[in-house]
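Suppose a colleague, Dr. K., hands you the sequence of a protein chain of 100 amino acids and asks what its three-dimensional shape might be. Before reaching for any lab equipment, you can write down a predicted structure in token form. Begin with the sequence itself:
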Amino acid sequence: MLENQKIRPASVIGPMGEELTLGSLPPPDTTRWVSRRKAQVVAAVEGGLLTADEACARYHMSLEELATWQRLFARVGVPGLRATRIQLYREAFPDRLLSS
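The predicted structure, expressed as tokens, is then:
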């Protein structure tokens, strides 16, 4: 039976070097998404703490939105997740930023 269960880490390292656990992630009812919180969700998914589907269900977002966060974080880092700067990054990375 155990070989069929997925093994997950109890914690992962967050974008600011902090330890992230399921309990320290942003609450499911978060409405104000600052760049740090977005980066924590991305780190949790990339570290295996949550699957992409679980993150989308938990935070009521689409897979496309999560994928956009992941691409922005990979290319620009935490500042790339700032909603007020998205136009600047679209201009800096035309054709590459929001496509896979």
